[in-house]
Amino acid sequence: MKTMTRLSGIGAAAVMMTGVGAALAPHASASVAQTPVAQVQMVPPGEYCTSYTSSRPELNPGATGAAVRKMQCLINNWRGYCALTIDGSYGPGTKEQVLAFQRKYTPTDVDASVGSRTWDALYRFNTPVKLSC
């Protein structure tokens, strides 16, 4: 199993590396966290997640289906690790992650409803990685 090192706190485009320690950037003011993941590949932002569906409907807690899976995938890519199981169910864990994302990127829409502004932000602030969750 590989270890992914994520340097966060250095802007919206966080640096992702596999098998590399923080020694490469000793001058960066960033926290270093290592999270075991099965596989990390570089892909264009959001590309991996579009395999679930191309639609972007409004999603609320309790929703299920392909659009929820896509949103969960985008949340995981934003986090840089497998914060959510991609199961297509908008439950309490997904709601917690959506609220965290909204507090950071759509502070006027912190309501757990994934509408057009949240979808836009999920694509805009996504990291170019493919996680195998």
From TrEMBL:
Key word Ligase present: no
Domain of life, per lineage: Bacteria
Signal peptide boundaries: 1-22
UniProt entry keywords in alphabetical sequence: Signal
Residue ranges constituting the Peptidoglycan binding-like domain according to the UniProt record: 64-122
Alphabetized Gene3D superfamilies for the sequence: PGBD-like superfamily/PGBD
Protein transport found in the keyword field: no
Protein name: Peptidoglycan-binding domain-containing protein
